[in-house]
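tool=predict chain=A
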Amino acid sequence: MLPFIGKINSFVRELSTLDREIKSLQELFTEQNPKLKAKKNLRDNLQKEFDAFKKVNNITVFDPTVLDKLEKAYREVQDSISNLEKLVENKTALEREIATEEAAIKKMQEVIPKSKQLRQQRIAVAEAQKELELLTSDINYQLASMKNDLTLLEPAESAMEEPLMNVKLLVYTIFIAGTIMGTLLIIICSIELVFGFIQEREVDFYPELSNLGYLPSKRKKFSSPEQEKMVLDSIFYVFEQKCSLVNIVFLSVLPGASFHQEVIENFEWNYAMSGKKMLVLFVVPAKDFVPLTGSTELCVVSYEGMVGSLPVENPATLLPSELQMLQQDISVLRDEFDGIFIVRKEPLDKVGVFFSQMLSFCDSAILLVGIRHTKRSMLRYVIEHQRTAEKTMMTIAVNSRDMDTVVNGEA
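tool=predict ok
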């Protein structure tokens, strides 16, 4: 009935008008009056037309008292549709604004580390300039106090005429050579400090990081299975001492390091021997994710037994909806597992906010660092996020050359 409210209202108003006119004429004239008969005929014809309209449009039940309510409801529906369209437009505009802000944040994240590096370089250059100014002042003092002529220490009866050595030229030459060598040394040290690679045992000297141990570049470089188990058990022991109450851990690798599956296997074994349950969730691209038959499906997490997957649309940044659903899944999994490890095998980079999202979400993080392959700038990037998040940051140094030294406790 709603689509025909306008037409029905027209019929009802005309019939009401005719009824009032007929009533007025009946008070003045008899039923045989031609004018009264004409009005009644007009009213009957209109009633027939109205009945035919209802029949054509399948309006079998018609209650005039409900008509006003239906019309009011119809207007409210139209207003709701209009408001919904405005909300959709506002949502679209808001999404565009969010995309713009995310792009700006991404650019800022790329610029901030470079700005800090330039600031450190400026400090180093200022210190070098200060040293050069002191050296210049000292040389100028020596030149001012030096006499132009040679001083005779004892009388001489005769002397051979020889050209005097140009002392000032010698001093200037030494000064310029020292200045050049000092500047080159400062530049080389600055470049190595800013752009160089992490060296053996260097990760032990960062107070913001807790190094769990050392591993060779490849699993086959262990001298024996016993040595491998000893090293991995030692790493787990240090982890357990530092994070006894931690149950959500983010594990990944930095550029220059390779992922070591044996770390996960040893942690699973030690958890099982301790009577605890451990779940490993591997971060995978959503386009490549295929759920296993019989696996348990939560909002975003899919798992079977002690292994599962966390499919993501963008490996650089979790969407707000993905992060919210992941929090809901973890709140469910906390009751079933003592330890939940979110593992990303691909190396982390400075693009996007995935690393900072994981730090804010997890209790701690374990990062594999490549000795002589991971840049110091990447380690400084990790430390900056650790200071912001105030979470426990642990490392495992990969590519150690002498595993016997590590086993004997000398590394």
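The longest helix spans residues 64-145. Residues 2-62 form one domain.
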